[in-house]
Design brief:
Mean pLDDT: 90
Protein name: Ornithine cyclodeaminase family protein
Helix content: 25-40%
Number of helices: 12
Low-confidence stretches: 315-322
CATH class of the largest domain: Alpha Beta
CATH architecture of the largest domain: 3-Layer(aba) Sandwich
CATH topology of the largest domain: Rossmann fold
Radius of gyration: 19 Å
Shape: globular
Strand order of the largest sheet: 9-8-7-10-11-14-12-13
Pfam family, one: OCD_Mu_crystall
Order of helices and strands: EHHEEEEEHHEHEEHEEHEHHEHEHHE
Organism: Lysobacter korlensis
Length: 322
């Protein structure tokens, strides 16, 4: 019986660096993939959380990510999100690889966030001051992706990490409590704000932001949860993976539209922006993502392809399923 290659978390991260992941997402959109054709995620309630099922069928492969979400796990010292990705041949549906689902999510989410905003982030000459809300895996992954994208192109300026409880961070980490004057000052000078939290209400007063600030929001795919206030959504050019999906799942968008602050017709699809639709230079830009199944498929294909090219059979994979 054939043994499927398994890419564990280490193999996923080593097979595909952050810049390559961003380019994989941009490449899929430039090649004409329409996120509107993607299969919506589904959720199955469980006693201690939920299953998230994310299938996609595009290009040479098809695949499905199965995640478990257990809100009580952090108190047990376990990850909140765990799971697997099954990659298969699109023609025969023969399984070809298994990947660590949580690691795949950590790689693909910042790749999607930065895919439409590489140019405005890289092409200014002044140091980029950054505010990061959150200190979990996605906050860290977004910051590391940013560092990789800026390398050799633009200097990184002041970085402020905002958390509810700074005492929980490792020693030596510079952080501020959310309501502090330091955070308000940092926001007023920031060129980029990254929101990667589990918050259900706005994290900050957006009136402090510069007119050319870029804001990334990745915290939720729930229509009643938001990290950004409606005032920002009204000021900004909002970029989403797919307008229909955002209007169904992105609370920052759904609630702003319901409050009359945001015109649904004004949303920019990420594929259009990557394809060349310009973004404003003197208006805030918001990139609001919810995570879509096609993104996992694109990154899984890239991980497996890069891993095979690098000889991962010997160094980074192990047989885990048959």
């Amino acid at each position: 019986m054939r043994t499927l290659p398994y890419f564990d978390a280490t193999a996923v991260h080593s097979a595909l660096d952050a810049t390559a992941a961003v380019e994989a997402i941009r490449g899929a959109l430039r090649a004409g993939f329409a996120p509107s054709s993607d299969i919506p995620r589904s959720s199955v309630p469980l006693r201690q959380g939920e299953f998230l099922l994310m299938p996609s069928d595009a290009g040479r492969s098809t695949g499905i990510k199965v995640l478990t979400v257990a809100p009580g796990n952090p108190s047990r010292g376990l990850p909140r999100i765990q799971g697997l990705y099954l990659l298969a041949d699109a023609e025969t549906l023969t399984p070809s690889a298994l990947l660590d689902g949580a690691a795949l999510t950590i790689v693909r989410t910042p790749a999607v966030s930065f895919a439409p905003i590489i140019d405005p982030i890289r092409h200014r000459q002044d140091p980029l001051d950054v505010v990061v809300f959150g200190a979990g895996p996605q906050a860290v992954a977004h910051f590391e992706t940013l560092r990789a994208l800026l390398a050799g192109a633009r200097e990184l300026g002041e970085v402020t990490t905002v958390v509810r409880d700074p005492d929980r961070l490792p020693a030596g980490t510079r952080a501020s409590a959310a309501a502090s004057g330091e955070v308000r000052a940092a926001l007023s000078g920031a060129g980029l704000v990254i929101c990667a939290t589990t918050a259900r209400t706005p994290l900050f007063d957006s009136s402090t932001l510069r007119d050319d600030a870029i804001v990334i929001a990745v915290g939720s795919h729930e229509p009643d949860a938001r990290e950004l206030d409606s005032a920002l959504m009204a000021r900004a050019q909002v970029v989403v993976e797919d307008p229909a999906t955002a209007l169904r799942e992105a609370g920052d968008v759904v609630l702003a539209v319901a409050e009359g602050a945001l015109d649904a017709a004004s949303l920019h699809a990420m594929g259009d922006v990557v394809g060349g639709v310009p973004l404003p230079a003197k208006r805030p830009i918001v990139v609001k993502t919810t995570g879509m199944s096609w993104e996992d498929l694109v990154i899984a294909e890239a991980v497996v392809g890069h891993g095979e090219a690098a000889g991962e059979d010997e160094s980074g994979r192990s047989g885990a399923a048959s």
